[in-house]
Write a structure and sequence with these properties.
alpha/beta, 2-enoyl-CoA Hydratase, Chain A, domain 1, 3 domains, eight-stranded mixed sheet, 17 strands
Length: about 525
């Protein structure tokens, strides 16, 4: 046997050893928890045969606490590049079978290497998280490793898409890297995120709480809004990641991928002519409007269980990806509150960063009133959405379906926030406030002078009808050019597509500056 043959056999043996991670027993334990291994996740995520692994033979550099006797190839994280639908993607997957996926200095350097390369070539990064946190034996070097990753997440923000999938534990300092990325996906029952675990919480505050109730996937999908996607299984989550990537460009200098479309652009949806209820306070589902107008009714919704009074997500018009923001009358009458404002503002900023046009569907009665909202800073949070729309330079198409009242009218991509094309349905009501509130302000003194109750109610009704006749329609706004056209609802798809095609060459620049100071 030649020396070369022996060396090749040694290489093959070491590769096989590296691919086993922490060994068969730990792989079996991972499977028993209903979880995939790091390499199984990568193989599902990427196109078959496309994965090129980096740093397979890296091991840790620690000698303390007996770690000198435990050196495992890859050191707890699998990194490399591959393709999704033929497009280059960089990926890292934390390997729980190796030291519980805990982060060491070399572990961090591996992740930093692919983040650096992804920035150079302009490719997205997907991180698959399943880690017990910092490797305690490495002390401050582990903390420094986290900070090195955070710094790269920050520099990559708005330059390349960054996506995090949480497929196991993610606690302490480890949570901040996913938090700095654009989207977070979690799986039910097997993933959790928190800064401080249940035991420490009990010690410090006396509160007794389970891991699931403190930072489980359902909590972050419904209460905190940290998670954008919630799936039942890892396999479902990985397929969702592939679908998400189909809407996104590879970097901020590219446009999102346009695909062939066989859904007629002039398809009429007669149901839309009847979808707005006769009574102004009666709800309807704005998702029905979205599905009726977008290509093949396909809509990828984000944060569907959080701040349900506003709907955000990706869809296509004539094969062209767009971000959709829509008030939801089916929940809290579609009002804007703190959570809805934050949710929509971050989405609008993401779309603007990555050249994705924004389509806004408006049916908003105003901001949610009350001391709870005021004490929570609704002024600042509402300003975030206002700021996001105002700074966005991507094509913006706005359709007012029904109500558009008060400051909320301004916030929802109005013409004065550089809305490019602003349409309204004939059912649109654009005014400072609704009829009842307006008449109380405008005619309050006259109402107080009427002693007879029947006469008072008759007077109020007459004034409300007068107000409705004047403002419960889009023609006043159209008269001033604040609405570009009033369209028949069933033609909405065609009008949006034509607007987006006309705006596809739009060029608009904000003033030069180091960065803006969005209200946080």
């Amino acid at each position: 046997m030649s020396i070369n043959t022996e060396k090749i056999r040694e290489l093959v043996k070491k590769r096989d050893e590296a691919r086993l991670g922490g060994g068969v027993k730990r792989i079996d334990a991972q499977h028993e928890k209903g979880k995939l291994t790091a390499r199984e996740r990568i193989n599902l995520l990427l196109d078959e045969g496309s994965f090129e692994e980096y740093d397979m033979f890296v091991t840790h550099r620690t000698f303390s606490f007996g770690l000198d006797k435990q050196r495992i190839f890859s050191d707890g994280v699998v990194t490399g590049r591959g393709t999704i639908d033929g497009r280059i993607i960089y990926v890292f997957a934390q390997d729980f079978t190796v030291f519980g996926g805990s982060l060491s200095e070399t572990f961090a350097l591996k992740i930093c290497k692919i983040l650096d390369q992804a920035m150079k070539v302009g490719a997205p990064v997907i991180g698959l998280n399943d880690s017990g946190g910092a490797r305690i034996q490495e002390g401050v070097r582990s903390l420094a490793g986290y900070a090195e990753i955070f710094q790269r997440n920050i520099l990559a923000s708005g330059v390349i898409p960054q996506i995090s999938a949480i497929f196991g534990p993610c606690a302490g300092g480890a949570v901040y890297s996913p938090a700095l990325t654009d989207f977070i996906l979690m799986t039910e029952n097997t993933s959790y995120m928190f800064v401080t675990g249940p035991k420490v919480v009990q010690t410090v505050t006396g509160e007794v709480i389970s891991t699931e109730d403190l930072g489980g996937a359902h909590v972050h999908a419904t209460k905190s809004g940290v998670s954008h996607f919630l799936t039942e299984t890892e396999e479902e989550g990985i397929m969702l990641l592939r679908k998400l990537m189909s809407y996104l460009p590879s970097n901020n200098l590219e446009d999102p991928p346009v695909i062939d479309n066989n859904d007629p652009i002039d398809r009429l949806e007669d149901t839309l002519n009847e979808i707005i209820p006769d009574r102004p306070n009666k709800p309807y589902d704005v998702k029905d409007v979205i599905s009726a107008t977008v290509d093949h009714g396909e809509f990828l919704e984000l944060q569907r269980n959080y701040a349900k009074n506003i709907v955000i997500g990706f869809a296509r018009y004539n094969g062209r990806p767009v971000g959709i923001v829509a008030n939801q009358p089916n929940f809290l009458a579609g009002v804007l509150d703190i959570d809805a404002s934050r949710k929509a503002a971050r989405f609008v900023r993401f779309c603007d960063a990555f050249n994705i046009p924004i389509v806004t569907l408006v049916d908003v009665p105003g901001f949610l009133p009350g001391s709870g909202q005021e004490y929570g800073g609704i002024i600042i949070h509402g300003a975030k959405l206002l700021f996001a729309y105002g700074e966005a330079t991507v094509p913006k198409v706005t359709i007012t379906l029904r109500k558009s009242y008060g400051g909320a009218h301004d916030v929802m991509s109005c013409k004065q926030l550089r809305g490019d094309v602003n349409y309204a349905w004939p059912t649109a009501e654009i005014a400072v406030m609704g009829a009842k509130g307006a008449i109380e302000v405008l005619e309050g003194r006259n109402i107080a002078k009427i002693e007879d109750e029947q006469e008072k109610q008759k007077f109020i009704q007459e004034k409300e009808e007068e107000y409705i006749e004047k403002f419960a329609n889009p023609y006043q706004a159209a008269k001033y050019g604040f609405i570009d056209d009033i369209i028949e609802p069933r033609n909405t798809r065609f009008r949006v597509i034509r607007a987006l095609e006309a705006l596809s060459t739009k060029k608009e620049m904000n003033p030069p500056r180091k960065h803006n100071n969005i209200p946080l």
